[in-house]
Amino acid sequence: MSIAHPFVYEKPATVGQALKLLSRHGPRARVLAGGTDLIGLMVDGAERPDVVVDIKGIKGLKDIRREKSATVLGSLATFTDVLESSLIRRKLPVMAEMAGWVASRGVRNRGTLVGNICSAVPCCDTGPILLAYRAQILVKGPRGARRVPIDKWFTGPRTTVLKPRELVIGIRIPDPGRHAGCFVKMRRYRGEDLAQASVTVLLMPGKEWRVAFGSVAPKPIQGKRIERLLKGRSLDAGLMDKVVDLTAKEIAPITDIRSTREYRAHMIRVMMRRALEGAVSRKAGKGPPYGSELI
Amino acid sequence: MSDLKVIGKPVPRIDGEERVVGAAQYVDDLDFGPNLLHAEIVESPHAHAEILSIDTREAERVPGVVKVVTAKDFPYTFGLYMQDRYIFAKDRVRFVGEQVAAVIARDPATAKRAAERVKVRYRKRPFVLDLKEALSDDAPLVHPDLGHYARCPWFFPRAGTNIAHWRKTRRGDIRKGFAQADFILEDTYTVPRYAHCAIETHAIVSLYDHSGRLTLWSSSQSPFTQRNVFANALAPLGLSHQDIRVISPNVGGGFGGKAGVSMEIMGAVLGLAVKGHPVKLRCTRGQEFYNTYQRQGVLARIKLGATKDGRMTAIDHKLHWDAGAYVEYGANVVNAAGLSATGPYPIPNIRIDSICTYTNLPPGGPYRGFGYSEFLFGLESHVDRLAEMMGMDPVKFRRINAIQEGDTLAYGGKMNPSGLREAIDRTAREIKWGKKTRPSGPNKVTGKGFATFWKAPAMPPNAASSAFLKFNEDGSLNVLISGMDIGQGLLTVMAQVASEVLTVPVERIRVETPDTDRNAYEWQTVGSHVTWGCGNAVKMAAEEARDKIFTTVHRAHGLKKEDLYLENEEVRCRTRKNFRLPLRDFVINGIMLPNGQFRGGPILASGMFMPEFTSALSDPETSQGGKPNVHYTVGAAAVDIEIDRDTGKVDVLKVVLAVDVGRAINPDLIRGQVVGGVVQGLATALYEDIRYDKNGKLLNANFTDYKIPTAMDTPKEIVPIILEVPQPDGPYGARGVGEHTMIPCAPIVANAIYNALGLRLKSMPLTAEKICLAMNGIDYDEVKGETMGLCFMGDPDTYEFSTGKTR
Question: Which of A99, B497, B781, B793 lies most in the core, judged by the most C-beta atoms within 10 Å?
Fold first, then answer.
């Protein structure tokens, strides 16, 4: 309950100040946003930073805004912010669907999407959806700014390409055009749960499909083979079966206390089928409303 | 009894508002000022090891540390029914997470930091997690000194084995009984461990002051029993009962987990270690899982026979319990089940073996249902299957065998009045038994399941309740009891009982949480017995107060006591219509006579209740000859579920639960019990899934991976049916109901799954995963990996237990 490890708490007011602090303390510092991951780890003693840099005092980082032909989410945007943003609902409806399935209301009010991809657990819900939306991560560091494509972001369980002295400023999602899709999350019950597996399917303009998975590999993964198979084609029963069978080649589920490998593999097939059907019907404007339970 | 004014009415909870608005204070909310010290526990990382040495020097050097306490300081044993525990592990540890030392410091972070610096050297010993291994002839002994432990007389440990207690119940001749049967079914069922998951974790603050008095603020269901256990354990220090005071503020959920004494014993001695300073010990969520109590796991082998016309003729029920490292409370769960594992059926030929086995897992103990949830899963699944084998409707089969008043119980006593048949009939009607609900989609299938249930309080035969009652100047009342409000609404119900006798409205009666110095004795708030036991005591106290009131009036006014009665807070007289004397006029200051003198004085009264018809003495080989149980509460329950064939997910459409409460003193509170119990019971059936690794470490001591239902996971509809066949010795006919509402939930779901899919799951929990894999021909046990929830790794059907040899 208490944090045994002593640490210095800093609350910079600008990105510049934050970068300075991170630069000074390097790997001994950790960035604090919502804290829904970091604080728990510090209580458990799994994270013992000497300096905690709380970025919640930095103005502007909470915004969700338009920028040229893209949507940018600041690194303090919470899941609730995403869920309640009319901009997101309009432009990136599957993103809002994902946000609604994250944890509980209390955690959604606090936890940020950027925090979710920085903690980078294999079961994170934000990873797969950003993969499907081909997002870019906006990073600032001592050597200036850089944009990391999301498929280059995750390097393994709890690891990313982010360097110790860097700070994520936000996420940039290029406009996908008129599209529809589904985020389907396997949970042990209706209450808050970490995904035992998740399937994201987007049906883009020009019959381009995007597919991503969570919790079935060491990091969120893109269903590249399935995307290639589906590209330019309309879904029929035969193609659906092929896609479902192909899931086995895309994923590498394991057995842990949340689920057996066998159930995960089975559920991915069920979820893939329902997500494909859902995407098609939503694209046609008649599917189940975003946020409905598909499994 | 239609003239009752308050009993039977849905009076709102007297403590409802403060709880709902968050104003109610719990132990952790109480302010003890800046001198409050904080404690952190040093835990065993091993399931079984010798303690070679404990070096506390480095921890003691951490600035802010006040003291480090180990078994050296307090080398005493404790326990409720069997003294098999040390306050801090002495010489050996027996489960992962057991307390070895505690650090007391000025603030929690310092205590935690210093606890990491306590160096304990262990020599690992072979451990037993598996029930079969624990019972094998060459098993490592969890308690080599078992034969020397002090224990209550109705426990039968076997020294030189891991068997802590073996309850045998024998009646009739089971060989003959099975010979009479036309159908016999034998199978094995397993139920894993469960955790209570009270939202408030255990917390205790301890203050040993300079007058030599030890005061404890304890989140507890059992303040008096805690005081008794503390006093017995600490007697070597010269402390006696009068020196120890236990105050229990509001409790944020008990469910049995806050009965008896678990972590609180540490709290008690930590106070003694730092005289003059209050010390707080509060469980983390993880500790709440592994170092309070858990519900014990059980492997049940049932053989049940019946004639073709549906009469059960014989039952052979073997219950193997994984009781964990200490059984000071848990052995009584085993005992209770061993006396009642026939279910609510008067089967003439009975053999029950309920065997309590030590393992190197966290201690088992009391949990809502006290053994009955555990054995009813197997038994009520089995009853359904035997009915199917016979070609008989399972509800009809149950109805034929349903126990009735006067029937002989397994231990030879007679059944109390009960409405089991009516419960069965009304439940069947309400759930529309025999009619399938139309599934909501093409992938969906529906099914219904049914079960009966029963349960008796499991208490010492002389478990007592008492009450004080005091009038105030304005005629309002304080009732001082030590029954605990653990959510069930006891305080309100006791106010109703006092109100009924004395006509003082409930809102003018204060009943508050206990303080052993001020309030009257109560054994424990467990076993669904306080409305019954404490209710009798309050009623007696109220009647005594009424008698004193009439005596005062008689002495002042010369009216005959038998002509007096109370109405609307006034004394009235049957023979003098105009006589009206408001209570407020005299209950403290008496009644003035014409000469200016007064008669009477403060009206206060006490009541006590102890069952005088029970006895725990019986033949240990048969359990015949005693009367261990005060009464059984019975009922029936049914469920309608929908299953997604693709995912195995279960949607609970409707639950019906009928229970014979004798008398519903407050029907709303009983409905609350039904809803709460059903949700908790369904959680054990569908979601909660405890896991240990192969070294005995609990893997999901958190809500991330141990799932209790949220509001979104509750059934669409729960229909409580309250039946009232009065209990002659209960207050206004009431009997216990608190635990009963959860115990049929697992078998109704198992039976409904079978009804929907033709799939019989014999091992709890009945998760979507297990259902789905079974539908796809995969045996969950073969793919579940190396974690275990049940206390065995192999196929339970193949388990044979050696219980013969002793060393």
Answer: B497
Whether residue B604 sits in one domain with residue B644: no
CATH classification code of A180-283: 3.30.390.50
* ipTM score assigned to the predicted complex: 0.95
CB–CB contact A189 B113 (8 Å): no
Write the pLDDT tens digit of every residue in B758-806.
999 999 999 999 999 999 999 998 898 877 766 555 666 666 666 555 4
Q: How far is A80 from chain B (nearest CA, A)?
A: 18
10 Å CB burial of residue B801 (0-12, 13-18, 19+) is middle
Question: In this structure, what DSSP letter does residue A205 have?
Answer: G
Facing B709 at nearest CB: one of A45, A104, A191: A191
Do B497 and B485 fall within a single domain? yes
Interface list for chain A against chain B, based on CB atoms closer than 8 Å? 1-6, 45, 104, 188-194, 255-263, 266-267, 270, 295
Q: In this structure, which amino acid lies at residue A41?
A: L
Average pLDDT score over residue span A131-158 = 97
Phi, psi values for residue B434, rounded to 5°: 95, -15
Identify the sign of the CA torsion B785, B791, B793, B798: negative
Closest CA to A199 of A210, A187, A213, A215: A213
Paired residues of B582 in beta bridges? B570
The answer to whether B220 and B251 have CB atoms below 8 angstroms apart is yes
**Domain positions in chain A:** 8-54, 64-174, 180-283
Residue B549 sits in which domain range? 16-23+463-609
Distance of CA A268 to the CA centre of its chain: 18
Q: Assign domain A8-54 to a CATH class.
A: alpha beta
**Alpha helices of B274-371 — where are they, by DSSP H?**
285-290, 330-340
Fold topology of A64-174: 3.30.465
Separation in Å, CA B443 to CA A270, B66, B447, B470, B642: 11, 64, 14, 64, 10
State whether B376 and B492 are in the same domain.
Answer: no
Question: Which chain B residues have a beta carbon less than 8 Å from that of A189?
Answer: 686-687, 707, 709-710, 712-713
Q: The domain that contains B183 carries what CATH number?
A: 3.30.365.10
Per-residue pLDDT at B1: 45
- Same domain? For B206 and B299 the reply is no
> Cβ B787–A190 below 8 Å, yes or no?
no
| Counted domains in chain B | 3
Q: Do the Cβ atoms of B724 and B2 come closer than 8 Å?
A: no
